[in-house]
Write a sequence for this structure.
């Protein structure tokens, strides 16, 4: 479906990319950003952006949408990852993971993201029920939730200790069903992408990495994994006597098409290894910091030439899909890992950096030819009173800030702080009712 044509009028600032800003209008024609001097076609719809800063749509480079259904569980806050993983697994088993739950959790999580300015979500799905076709059903339900809301989705067929050949066959089937013959792992119009991603060397074998890598090579998919978290480093040292990045390099998983999430515990040599490989990174401070799992050395990575994106990770550790809030946190804690990051650099991580890791140069920017994904942030209220720099103020002021309007491919998907395609309360009630019924059944067993 082609994108729509829309003019965002009279913005205080349009942030085209990191370092390129201007006041005035933003014109999106058939879903694509037009040049600043282009004339709007007759009959173009107008969205008032006066008193607002317009940024590219935020790109959440690392989420686990299923965990939207498993937030603030007792025994999961501020605990070592070695305790957190089995606690989450027990809850998954009690509730039951299937397409119905995955679709309801994805709908709630994607809606939350849109309402917070996230126009693209990379969903690293790691928990799979047994049974032929179960994986495809979950992927299809997640993709359907994104399509219904008008969000872009990068569905990552992950693994966490799954049987390698079955995982690879499932990834292949998902790519075939969702993409067909679409090149580069992305559907025409760019609304849906498929990637592959083992959870990490702590849970997945060399064979799993190899077989999923083969699916990625054959189908042109991006590769993603998690590395150098608490349990990842400890497990790799115990099992292999080596650190995770050394294994990933040997297994062919340090390369320009690979994105590494978390990276909380890195040596200087490992930073240089990532940079030399061309791999990208994803910072997830909203997960790692409050859980006590560490702070990635973002400034050191960037100084070495590594492109860094931003992700929320899942509700089981973060409890929120508010990427701008996590950008604020990343900026605030960056000094603890070496160098205080400027607000614009962190905003660029949440847009351009994340999009680069997905291999999507058309996302995360608002220059001519970019995808027409935009957030309209009202900065005229008391939360921004006295702010000298409204772009920096997006992160420094108003911790719970939400955009007034959100646009995806020229379509308004959030208008005046409300979803256009659904009622968020209905989505919340649907997921809540499903969870309540399943917990009742679990207690009765």
């Amino acid at each position: 479906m082609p994108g729509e044509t829309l003019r965002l009028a009279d913005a205080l600032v349009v942030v085209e990319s990191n370092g390129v800003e201007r006041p005035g209008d933003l014109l999106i024609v058939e879903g694509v950003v037009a040049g600043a001097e282009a004339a709007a076609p007759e009959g173009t719809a107008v969205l008032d952006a006066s008193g607002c800063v317009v940024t590219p749509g935020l790109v959440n480079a690392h989420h686990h949408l299923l965990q939207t259904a498993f937030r603030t569980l007792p025994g999961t806050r501020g605990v070592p990852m070695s305790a957190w993983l089995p606690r989450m697994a027990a809850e998954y088993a009690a509730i039951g993971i299937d397409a119905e739950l995955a679709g309801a959790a994805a709908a709630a999580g994607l809606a939350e993201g849109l309402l917070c300015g996230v126009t693209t979500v990379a969903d690293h799905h790691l928990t799979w029920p047994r049974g032929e076709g179960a994986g495809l059903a979950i992927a299809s339900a997640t993709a359907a939730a994104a399509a219904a809301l008008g969000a872009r989705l990068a569905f990552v067929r992950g693994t966490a200790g799954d049987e390698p050949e079955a995982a690879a066959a499932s990834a292949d089937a998902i790519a075939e069903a969702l993409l067909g013959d679409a090149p580069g792992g992305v559907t025409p119009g760019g609304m849906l992408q498929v990637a592959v991603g083992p959870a990490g060397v702590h849970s997945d074998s060399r064979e799993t990495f190899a077989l999923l890598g083969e699916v990625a090579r054959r189908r042109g998919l991006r590769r993603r994994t998690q590395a150098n978290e608490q349990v990842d480093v400890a497990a790799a040292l115990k099992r292999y006597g080596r650190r995770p990045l050394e294994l990933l390099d040997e297994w062919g998983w340090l390369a320009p098409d690979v994105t590494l999430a978390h990276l909380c515990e890195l040596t200087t040599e490992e930073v240089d290894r990532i940079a030399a490989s061309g791999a990208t990174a994803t910072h997830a401070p909203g997960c790692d910091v409050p859980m006590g799992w560490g702070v990635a050395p973002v400034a050191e990575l960037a100084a070495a030439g590594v492109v860094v994106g931003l992700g929320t990770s899942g509700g089981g550790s973060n409890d929120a899909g508010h990427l701008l809030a996590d950008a604020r946190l990343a900026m605030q804690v960056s000094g603890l890992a070496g160098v205080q990051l400027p607000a614009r650099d962190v905003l660029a991580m949440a847009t351009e950096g994340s999009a680069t890791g997905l291999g999507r140069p058309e996302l995360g920017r608002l220059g001519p030819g970019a995808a027409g994904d935009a957030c309209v942030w009202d900065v005229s209220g008391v939360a921004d009173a006295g702010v000298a720099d409204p772009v920096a103020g997006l992160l420094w002021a108003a911790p719970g800030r939400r955009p007034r309007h959100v646009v995806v491919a020229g379509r308004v998907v959030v208008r005046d702080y409300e979803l256009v395609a659904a009622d968020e309360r209905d989505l919340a009630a649907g997921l809540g009712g499903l969870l309540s019924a399943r917990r009742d059944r679990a207690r009765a067993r």
In short: The longest helix spans residues 424-444.
